[in-house]
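Cross-check.
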Amino acid sequence: MKLKLKKLIGIETEVGRLLDKYEDTYEVKVFRSLEEVIAFFEKQENAGARRKTLFVAAKDESIAWGREYGLAVMAYKNLTIPNQTYYGVDMIAEGFGEVDANFLEKVHQRYHGIPWKIAETKRCIIRELSLEDLDALFELYADEEIVRFTENLYSYEEEKEFQSAYINNMYRFYGYGMWLVFSKETGRLIGRAGLEHREYNGEIELELGYLIGTQYQKQGYAAEVCQQILKIAKSMTDFPRINCLIDAKNIPSIRLAEKLSFTRAEEIEVDGRKMERYILTFQ
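Predicted model, tokenized:
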């Protein structure tokens, strides 16, 4: 599902002329009041145009109207308008100095349920999962070798319910999670990799997870993807280190962790299985 952001709108008293910096990329309209915004949309009732618009607002009243009207809304934390809750928005900007078009696109995509493209490597695209990917995911997990060292999927309907909650909670709240890995050459799903949370000794820590389809193994895909994800983890999270939990019998994964500069920390038992815990401290 592709839906490109085309238009930015705001209200003078809330965002001033701060949106003007995006005029080279989007059609920008800044109105004097919420009433003018409402009148504008009433004149050109166009669901397609509405779906391609991002409304930037600083007041709860404006945010509530935009959400009710079906607009993607990004809150702007205007310090001259205090005591706002910003309820219902996916993202809040405290300034526009570092807010680029990519950030605005992501706010728009999140509202419309479009999965984010996280990164590209030489051969792969890493992006969020959408419910449209479930068939391909089940095809990937149909290989018995895939589930030898990892948990299998639930039944189709249970997995759909789980992934829907995961998208709404993990992706929306943290901006990261377990992602999908696609081949650039074929467009096919070849694996999963990403960042999760796990509790160690009463503390929540970051964990790297990865899985590559059998036919794509021993070709360097896992290392290529994981190296990129480690860069993302270091830059976008505040965790000082990252863990990797590997079945003690999964020798190829242990070798990969060591290649990625992880160091063995301990052996622990998880659900009756012996697991090797590896740790990488960010420099």
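The mean pLDDT is 95. The first strand starts at residue 7 and ends at 11. Passed to J.P. for a second look.
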